[in-house]
Design brief:
The complex is a heterodimer of chains A (321) and B (529). By secondary structure, chain A is of the alpha/beta class. Chain A has two domains: 171 residues, no CATH class; 95 residues, no CATH class. In chain A, the strands form two sheets. A six-stranded mixed sheet of chain A has the order 1-2-5-6-7-8, with helices on both faces. Chain A has a two-stranded antiparallel sheet with strand order 3-4. The longest helix of chain A has 23 residues. The model of chain A has no long low-confidence stretch (mean pLDDT 84). Chain B is α+β, with helices and mostly antiparallel strands and 529 residues long. Helix content of chain B is 40%, strand content 17%. In chain B, strands 12-13-14-11-10-15 form a six-stranded antiparallel sheet. In chain B, strand 3 and strand 4 form a beta hairpin. In chain B, helix 4 packs antiparallel against helix 10, helix 5 runs parallel beside helix 6 and helix 6 runs antiparallel to helix 7. Chain B starts with a helix and ends in a 43-residue tail after the last strand. The relative contact order of chain B is 0.12. The model of chain B has no long low-confidence stretch (mean pLDDT 89). The chains are: A alpha/beta (321), B alpha+beta (529).
Chain lengths: 321, 529
């Protein structure tokens, strides 16, 4: 489903987009890293993750083209098996992996997967943000690690179907431009934690069929439907908006609007919600603070009233010193 | 975020306009700040696109890089920036006052007072948002290791003379900005969200336009509606009405307006280079100038709204009275500025890429100490902040019910009066816990003795009563006095002294050794795409 188009049709277009400058630069950097049959990339993998292995002068770079995502996934799985049998280094450029998300397959395309001479597999993420004096923006590294963790999970599923099952390395290689140059440098990132978190979240996801089962028959999200019909359809799917959604989801502005209209306190952040106990709407909280509603024995209500009294006292004192 | 701030945010949601989060201004504002609104080229590290900079709100200086991938144009931009920023810094470096500092005498090892210079005032840089502070650091890092032709005649692509110096200063400002409560380099979004609580989340407060809309909504609009317009409204061309405060630009702007303008500029430049005679060159130069003009206009159109917003924010902040202890923190900023001025004058090398262990530990200790100082001072300056501390049981306000004179058990009896205080707050007092009240700006400590009844505590006054047997007048609370006592200390003591870098223990990498001059970043063909 195209959520960007859906968001625009709902009247709350998403603010995501990519500058063509960033895109050009990112592509050029990736091409440079993978140039010469991936010689530079394999040198980085060997240097950072597998210094004891044979020099990676020659590596197999199998052709992974096939028709459709299913075809490419099958081709990738075959290439991985063959690489293990052949030994030596193999570079898989833009392989395709499938991962089951909430009961339906999602197709993923890592930048590269490297098969080591010992048969183990490494995920490579190529990013165009700089590694300045050996360190990069932690927020961006975190995002890259979470992304790579999903690829590791998908690779593990492929590995589990092989016999003997090869090892998927939990250290992924993050390749970035060095300082202000366009020369690649790399760092091994341990994604065990992100892998575990993602695996748990994927396990806990409600299956799509179950969500679909709760929807009224005939619910349709086609962006060319009239806005009211579309809003009703989106409303039918439960969503819990929090400000963190703004950086992740195309529909966040729509959900924010609904959340604000419903007077929910979570629109101010999850932490706010946690402080306020059972009070979930702004009006509830304010009336409890004013002493018009709420149970004074409830610790959340009592704390609110004290906070309101202290705040009023401080503001009054400031107004007439 | 304390419950009091949460409450303020919820009130803002319900009233539609931001609510006060402070009753005084907690940061120093210079009478003549240098406002800096930079834009960067997306995808490329340290490739500025342009900036508005200056101290006069009506006459900002517009600096533009018509082709950010061109190294010469980039250097020209940085040189122009240095021409604006360095004279501004120099104007503060000149006027000094005498001050004293305690230093360890290298021969005797004793602490002695030495007479030193302290700059009478310090410069102040204001950027629109937190990303702007990071960008100042990045620019500083990209410039400070560059070599000028004078320093190194062999270096390829020598930097213009004052660029490395500007890099060192920007690095210093960026480093200082990490010290809590410092005011040499400030982000407008941080300043505003410190003093007002809006009806949106902290993430959304990073948007300068939306933040201002909440604090000072246009006539006839609520803050919420105005903030939404500032965030999302686009004109018929698909461009944001309120452009992002940068340094990153909106992708729609990059793709739709900037990229074609760059292309026209590049074409005009190639055409000029290929001109066959003077007449043709003149015509083509005209086209090139027009193309450059177009990019300048584009950059101006994206930075000017932010420039105006920053000044509007400054106006709003100037309406708040300055907190009593802000001046004292600003003096620390003046020391920091003077210190770096002296290091530059002494010909010390630029700040290294990585700090040695002792310097890093010192920086960390400073930040921790300044954070504690800031927390204490803000609470003492501002009843609204103190209310938060009272709510969390770290302070309490009360009225004196009774004072009983008592004396200490030492050889010379010294006054240790017992004070009974009634409070409605719930301080988390343990036996023997110390509390402090502000007495003429100095902290007076009192020890918790016991609780008489619910909300009635007995305290023993410990100091600030003079040397005599009888306490000095006014130094002991009297019946009916009202004051606030804190469980946290008002003044911060420095931690244990760290060894000199030359004496770094082996556990921390050992002495850093002779400082070797840091090499400049290597220039490669691939630097610029």
């Amino acid at each position: 489903m195209d959520k960007t188009a859906l968001a625009s049709a709902l009247g709350s277009p998403s603010a995501f987009g990519q500058s063509q400058f960033a895109l050009t630069r990112g592509n050029a950097f990736e091409a440079k890293v993978k140039a010469d049959g991936g010689a530079e990339l394999l040198r980085l993998v060997r240097g950072h993750l597998d210094p004891g292995a044979e020099a990676a002068e020659r590596a197999a770079v199998p052709d992974l083209s096939a028709i459709g995502p299913e075809g490419r996934t099958a081709r990738t799985a075959l290439a991985l098996r063959e690489a293990g049998e052949a030994g030596g280094w193999t570079l898989l450029d833009h392989p395709m992996l499938a991962l089951e998300v909430a009961g339906s397959p999602a197709f993923l395309e890592p930048d590269a997967v490297v098969v080591h001479p010992d048969g183990s597999w490494t995920v490579v993420e190529i990013k165009s943000f700089p590694m300045l004096d050996g360190s990069a923006d932690p927020a961006k590294v975190g995002a890259a690690a979470r992304q790579a963790a999903v690829y590791v999970l998908a690779l593990e599923a492929v590995a589990a179907r092989l016999d003997p099952s090869p090892r998927v390395r939990h250290d992924v290689l993050l390749v970035c431009p060095k300082d202000f140059s366009n020369l690649p440098t790399a760092s091994a990132v341990d994604v065990r934690k992100q892998r575990a978190v993602t695996a748990r979240q994927l396990d806990r996801l409600t299956r799509i069929e179950e969500i679909a089962g709760t929807l009224p028959a005939g619910t349709c999200f086609a962006p060319d439907l009239p806005a009211e019909q579309l809003t009703a359809a989106v409303e039918a799917v439960p969503a819990t908006y929090a400000p963190d959604c703004l950086s992740a989801c195309e529909l966040a502005f729509h959900c924010r609007q609904r959340s604000r209209a419903a007077d929910e306190v979570t629109a101010l952040g999850r932490a706010v919600r946690a402080e306020l106990g059972g009070l979930t709407t702004v009006e509830d909280v304010l009336s409890a603070a004013r002493g018009e509603s709420g149970d004074p024995a409830d610790p959340a209500v009592a704390a609110l009233r004290r906070a309101a009294a202290l705040r009023a006292e401080a503001l009054q004192g400031a107004a007439c010193p | 975020m304390s419950l009091i701030t949460t409450l303020a945010r919820l009130e803002a949601v319900s009233t539609g306009v931001a609510q006060p989060a402070a009753t005084v201004r907690h940061r120093h504002l210079s009478g003549q700040p240098l406002v800096f609104v930079p834009l960067t080229t997306s995808g490329e590290a340290g490739a500025p696109l342009g900036a508005l900079v200056g101290t006069d709100r009506d006459a900002p200086r517009l600096l533009v890089v018509p082709q950010p991938r061109d190294r010469d144009l980039r250097f020209a931009f940085l040189a122009e920036l240095a021409d604006v920023v360095l004279p501004y810094l120099d104007s503060y470096a000149g006027s000094v006052e005498a001050a004293e500092r305690t230093e360890t005498d290298p021969e005797t090892g004793k602490r002695v007072k030495v007479e030193v210079e302290l700059c009478a005032d310090a410069p102040q840089l204001i950027v629109p948002g937190r990303a702007g502070i990071e960008y100042v650091r990045l620019l500083g890092r990209s410039m400070r290791f560059r070599r000028t032709a004078e320093q190194d005649p062999e270096a390829p692509y020598p930097a213009p003379p004052r660029v490395p110096l500007l890099g060192r200063w920007l690095t210093h400002f960026g480093e200082r900005a990490r010290v809590p409560g410092s005011s040499l380099l400030l982000a407008m979004t941080d300043l505003l969200s410190r003093h007002w609580a809006t009806g949106q989340s902290g993430i959304e407060d990073q948007h300068l336009g939306a933040l201002l809309a909440w604090i000072d909504p246009p006539r006839g609009s609520t803050g919420a509606a105005a903030a939404r317009t500032a965030e999302l409204a686009r004109d018929t061309d698909g461009q944001l009405v309120c452009p992002p405060a940068g340094p990153a630009t909106d992708p729609a702007f990059d793709n739709k307006l900037l990229a074609p303008a760059f292309e026209r500029y590049d074409r005009a430049r190639t055409a000029l280079a290929g001109a066959e005679d003077g007449l043709q060159a003149d015509t083509r130069l005209g086209i090139l100038t027009a193309a450059e003009r177009e990019i300048r206009d584009l950059v101006a159109s994206r930075t000017r709204p932010t420039w105006d917003a920053v000044w509007r924010g400054l106006d709003l902040l100037h309406r708040l009275p300055e907190g009593a202890r802000v001046e004292e923190r600003w003096t620390r900023d003046r020391w920091s500025f003077t210190g770096h001025r002296d290091r530059v004058l002494a010909g010390e090398p630029p700040q290294p890429r990585r700090d040695d262990a002792v310097t890093a530990a010192n920086k960390l200790a400073t930040r921790e100490r300044e954070q504690a100082r800031l927390d204490a001072q803000e609470a003492l300056d501002d009843p609204l902040v103190m209310a938060g501390r009272r709510l969390s049981g770290e302070a309490f306000a009360g009225e004196v019910l009774d004072v009983v004179m008592a004396y200490g058990e030492g050889k010379r009896p010294s006054p240790r009066p017992l004070v009974t205080v009634r409070t409605e707050d719930r301080p988390q007092l343990a036996e023997g816990a110390k509390t402090y009240r502000s007495l003429g700006g100095k902290p007076q400590s009192m020890e918790f003795v016991g609780q008489e009844a619910a909300g009635v505590v007995v305290l023993r006054v410990l100091d600030k009563m003079g040397r005599g047997k009888e306490p000095e007048p006014g130094s002991v609370p009297e019946k009916g006095d009202r004051f606030t006592l804190t469980l946290f200390e008002h003044e911060q003591r420095g931690g244990a002294k760290l060894p000199d870098p030359e004496a770094t223990p082996w556990t921390h990498g050992g002495p850093p050794g002779e400082g070797v001059p840091e090499p400049a970043d290597a220039m490669t063909q691939e630097d610029v795409l």
